[in-house]
């Protein structure tokens, strides 16, 4: 599965360079040039890390970082998403301290070597990624990630690779509706929804296998939005 990055860089040439190379290195990149785009993409795409230039087209990246951390009434994004600020060439220690005070996880001034940027991205992701749980319980369903064992009321369920990954994703928050965009990105690594029926067909097979082990309503389709593992 690819890691989703939100790249906020006002200079099209630099943004294009980073988008191309980060994509080649296996990341899924969502590009933005302005602060308003950052907040909209953070809400819509649920990135796993944000690369945020300190001088965006419409406002300071420091202010955007603060808004990401504080949230906004009526809007929803992960306020704990890791943020790396990309400072200007004249950045100094005071700028770095101000960046950390606004909530960034790392600060890298321009010009920087691309390989150093990738190394810092991976280091931040390692520090901020939670350890996988030994056991996930969702109603009668139990998933053991270390052994990939799945049971429903004690009955073992055999799942194919993507079926298991889909279940694992849904089981992290069983009653939450995960959007199709999220699931296709995090389970299959797709960049966009397109016309694929892959998610629907896997969800249908997963539903049947869980119900065969113990009759019940699993992998519920929220029409036009996505799927959740269990009802309320």
Mean pLDDT: 90
How many domains? The number is: 2
- Count of β-strands: 12
Question: What's the architecture of the largest domain in CATH terms?
Answer: 3-Layer(aba) Sandwich
- The radius of gyration computed from the alpha-carbon positions, rounded to a whole number of angstroms, is 20 Å
What proportion of the residues is helical, as a percent range? 40-55%
Strand arrangement across the biggest beta sheet: 2-1-3-4-5
Main sheet record:
5 strands, parallel
Topology order in helix (H) and strand (E) letters: EHEHEHEHEHEEEEHEHHEE
- Which structural class matches the secondary elements? alpha/beta
Named CATH topology of the largest domain: Rossmann fold
Helix tally equals: 8
How far apart, in Å, are the first and last alpha carbons? 29 Å
- At the first level of CATH, what is the class of the largest domain? Alpha Beta
Indicate the overall shape. elongated
CATH superfamily heading of the largest domain: Response regulator
Query: Which residues sit in consecutive blocks of at least 5 with pLDDT less than 50?
Result: none
Strand percentage: 15-25%
Describe what is shown at a glance.
This protein has 232 residues and is of the alpha/beta class. The chain has 2 domains: 3-128, Rossmann fold; 136-228, Winged helix-like DNA-binding domain superfamily/Winged helix DNA-binding domain (Arc Repressor Mutant, subunit A), CATH 1.10.10. It has helices spanning 12-24, 35-45, 61-70, 93-101, 114-128, 161-171, 180-188, 198-213; strands at 3-8, 27-32, 49-53, 83-87, 106-109, 136-138, 141-144, 149-152, 155-156, 178-179, 220-222, 226-228.
